[in-house]
Specification:
mainly alpha, single chain
Length: 872
């Protein structure tokens, strides 16, 4: 029976009931040692109507890749063959069931989600994970990724973790506090001495484990463990651990030896524990006193400690030399090839000095972990191998390998720390260039563009044969540092004979060749993506769309999830400029979700800011400001957010659309100077700036912007750009002919409609109402179709002023859908099955079905057979 946990039980029952109803979700139980997390999980495991999967983090397994995940998912691995190909291959490699190519860590998370969804096809599933703060890094990442996407899967996930461990942003938490006085008293024996009862109740602070254990150790322990310290001065966890060690100390010496080996051996495998114990003259009979004392339990060939604090008390209470001997004993019996990584870690734990043999064994373990996409585990193994290396060169090499693996593990801070240590140990130019490359990537992802640029240009000088690769990469941080730094970088690139280098230079300074002509279709997606951003600078928006769309499809097929935020940003950007606002919303929403899961601040900022622009176009002020806030907060302290220019454009566009032109001008002017003037957003917002400035009576402030726009139009040769120049000149001069020339040129739907609106306003003021109605009607139709509400309202008001009342149109059929619902419905309308859609979007078929189920009533249809006739 659980006392005082009715609220927590109700919350878990609610979660399980949601899973029974085909929904799902996750919650993190948070609290200190002994507060009752495991007891709640044990209670939850007995709930009816669900299949239960259980796993736990183990302190000494935290460096073994996929240890926690393997334990949790082992019962459902028979469903692996039902997963989409890339996910199936990634999980099979992770669990050592097959060899697989290195893949993105996020793909493991998608695979876990799909596997849980497949398990739930047979009925609701409850996953219980104890001691999540001790999960290995890749298991924790994958479970958190899946936990955020369980809605509609029929899966409930409860993770128990101590305070300060296992950060789980985005997940609801259920904090366990101490029991109230009445419930706490129920855990104490009725015949307990009144003095001890009073002391225990006061010192246990409602902690159930303390309430059960402190009475067993008498008054000395409740008064500070016999150490002379007052209870208030000794943390409760320390007193409990000391209490458990007091029980251990009363055991025979041979029993303590077996317990120490069990504490050092991370899996609880009784056969391994007893073999290792035999090497230290102990055996199975010596376990009996520990069992009788209730410190351990044995079942099915597995030994389990009563509580993690018992294990900690045994291990940390033993003398250092005895701990070393225990690890040596365990290592000596782990001889099978499939446990080589565990053997290596035990040998490392027993090492007291540098040892190249042990370092080499750990390096092998790291290599295997990397092959299984366990980048965090590989990094940890390489780092420990470096500590055990006997030469500076060996130590430096392994430190750099560790740093290289922390990058795909999503831990750039650790990558910088280890790369800097590696650089301090050797002076070989080629090695230092490699260090610079790794450090630069890490600093770039943290928003320190200046350091990233300096490292890459310095590395280019160290290895002339790799200078091109370094300088091509240096364009990225240089872009955020302003035009002088970018120009310097392009000057350096001028000596590089590479088609992408030539395109980058000409995109900024001249008229480059067509983007498609410099894209090597055989190159990796990561190489090709470099040219997409500068395609917009060259005015090749349609070409960027084609390349980005092809790369997105390729990454979906190959499981390259980590590149999707970058590519989906470029795709959404191209869709926005082409007037396909709902498409842009779909692409940006998906990219932002993946960027957040992958901890990619550059793309969280850029995509949030782009979504803010879309919200501004729709007149959604609250959502626009929320997205701007997200964009500006996605940067390291002191760093400029990558999406700053887009965010300012969004706010300026919002003000312009809502008629606050005086507020719009300074916002849009703020990105017309270095370090933002060369940014895509700075160029594309110039027509907005001109309109706001003219309406605010500040036309003299925009002459420089108009010159830059005209130069852009001439350099790119794009008719739509020249059409915008004519519109700006029409506003500044009040010249009808400029409006006429603008509308004769092929333009983008939204921008052409805005020109029609401005021209219609000019015609109405000139009392040419009949002509005004024609262009205003066209503008209104476009604004209504695109959902550009502020501009539609303005056009409708102008039409009313001409004497024509324009009725409000019916809302577009897809307007009520979320971006993800729209994306799924469109694919379903093309005839794709739920499984096909799931594989393409890295979802589970149940999630696809859930979104379709929600979308059908909004669309007024009964099923997918009706979707093809809708305008989606």
């Amino acid at each position: 029976m659980l006392y005082g946990r009715s609220a927590e039980q109700a919350r878990i029952e609610q979660l399980v009931e949601a899973a029974r109803d085909g929904m799902g979700g996750a919650v993190v139980l948070r609290g200190g040692p002994g507060i009752g997390k495991t007891a709640l999980l044990d209670w939850a495991a007995g709930l009816p109507g669900v299949s239960v999967l259980r796993g736990a983090g183990v302190e000494f397994e935290a460096q073994l890749p996929f240890a926690g995940l393997s334990q949790l998912l082992r019962p459902v691995l028979d469903r692996l063959d039902r997963l989409p190909g890339p996910q199936r291959a990634a999980l099979a490699g992770a669990f050592g069931l097959a060899r697989s190519e290195p893949s993105d860590r996020l793909l493991i998370g998608f695979g876990v989600l799909s596997l849980l969804a497949e398990a739930a096809e047979d009925g609701p599933v409850l996953c219980l994970v104890d001691d999540a703060h001790w999960l290995d890094l890749v298991s924790a990442d994958a479970l958190l990724f899946a936990a955020r996407r369980l809605r509609g899967e029929g899966v409930a996930l409860v993770l128990a973790a101590r305070d300060g461990g296992f950060p789980a942003p985005g997940l609801p938490e259920l904090r366990l506090e101490g029991l109230g006085a009445a419930d706490a008293a129920k855990l104490l024996a009725p015949d307990l001495d009144p003095v001890v009862r009073y002391r225990v109740l006061a010192e246990a602070q409602g902690n159930p484990l303390a309430l059960l254990e402190l009475p067993k150790i008498g008054r000395d322990a409740t008064a500070g463990g016999g150490s002379g310290a007052s209870p208030a001065a000794t943390p409760l966890t320390d007193r409990l651990q000391a209490a458990f060690y007091g029980q251990v100390e009363r055991l025979p010496e041979a029993s303590r030896v077996v317990l120490l080996i069990a504490a050092a051996e991370e899996t609880g495998d009784l056969a391994v524990i007893l073999q290792a114990a035999a090497a230290l003259d102990a055996g199975a009979d010596d376990l009996r006193p520990a069992e009788e004392a209730g410190l351990v339990a044995i079942a099915g060939g597995t030994l389990r400690f009563r509580h993690p604090l018992v294990r900690a008390a045994v291990y940390h209470g033993a003398p250092y030399a005895q701990r070393l001997a225990a690890h040596r004993a365990v290592a000596s019996v782990l001889t099978a090839p499939d446990v080589a990584d565990r053997r290596a870690w035990h040998r490392a734990a027993a090492a007291t000095a540098p040892d190249d043999d042990v370092a080499a064994a750990l390096e092998d373990s790291a290599r295997q972990a990397r092959e299984r996409n366990g980048y965090g585990a590989a990094a940890a193994a390489y780092e420990r191998a470096a500590q055990l290396s006997q030469t500076p060169a060996g130590q430096a090499r392994r430190l750099l390998l560790a740093a290289e693996n922390w990058l795909p593990a999503g831990t750039p801070g650790a990558a910088v720390r280890l790369a800097e240590r590696a650089a301090s140990l050797v002076d070989d130019p080629a090695f230092l260039a490699r260090v610079g490359w790794v450090e630069a990537q890490a600093w770039f992802w943290q928003g320190n563009y200046q350091t990233a640029y300096e490292l890459l240009t310095a590395a280019a000088g160290l290895v002339p044969e790799r200078a091109g690769q370094m300088l091509l990469q240096a364009v990225h941080p240089a872009w955020f540092l302003g035009e002088p730094r970018l120009s310097e970088c392009l000057d350096r690139l001028a000596g590089i004979d590479h088609p992408i280098a030539r395109f980058q230079i000409e995109a900024v300074r001249g008229r480059p060749p067509a983007l498609a002509s410099v894209v090597d279709r055989s190159a990796s997606a990561r190489e090709v993506v470099e040219v997409c951003g500068l395609g917009f600078v060259a005015g090749q928006d349609a070409e960027v769309y084609e390349v980005a769309a092809a790369l997105v499809a390729r990454c979906r097929a190959e499981g390259q999830v980590g590149l999707l935020p970058t590519l989906l940003f470029f795709l959404a950007e191209a869709e926005l400029f082409a007037g396909r606002h709902s498409d842009a919303e779909v692409s940006a929403a998906e990219g932002l979700d993946v960027a957040r899961d992958g901890a990619q601040p550059v793309w969280i900022s850029q995509l949030s800011a782009l979504k803010a622009v879309l919200a501004a176009l729709g007149g959604e002020e609250e959502r626009c400001r929320e997205m701007v806030s997200d964009a500006l907060s996605a940067a390291a302290p002191g760093a400029t957010p990558a999406g700053y220019a887009w965010a300012q454009w969004a706010l300026g566009l919002l003000d312009l659309g809502l008629g606050r032109v005086e507020a719009a001008v300074p916002r849009l002017l703020s990105i017309q100077d270095d370090p933002y003037a060369h940014h895509v957003a700075a160029h594309r917002c110039i027509p907005d700036l001109v309109e706001a400035a003219v309406r605010a009576g500040a036309a003299e402030q925009v002459a420089g912007g108009v010159r830059r726009l005209a130069a852009f139009a001439q350099r790119t040769g794009q008719p739509w750009a020249q059409a915008l120049v004519h519109r700006c000149q029409a506003l500044l001069r009040g010249d009808e002919q400029e409006y006429v020339m603008s509308l004769k040129l092929p333009g983008r739907p939204f921008e052409q409609a805005r020109t029609e609106l401005l021209y219609g306003e000019w015609l109405r003021r000139a009392r040419r109402k009949a002509e005004a109605r024609v262009v205003l009607r066209r503008a209104l139709d476009t604004f209504d179709r695109l959902g550009a509400r502020p501009w539609a309202a303005r056009a409708r008001a102008e039409l009313t002023a001409t004497g024509l009342r324009a009725p409000r149109p019916a809302e577009p059929v897809a307007a009520q859908l979320t971006p993800q619902e729209l994306q799924i419905v469109r694919l379903a309308a093309q005839g794709l099955s739920n499984k096909d859609i799931a594989g393409q979007l890295f979802l589970s078929p149940k999630t696809v079905a859930y979104h379709l189920y929600k979308a059908y009533p909004k669309l007024g249809v009964a099923g997918r057979g009706d979707l093809a006739r809708l305008a989606l």
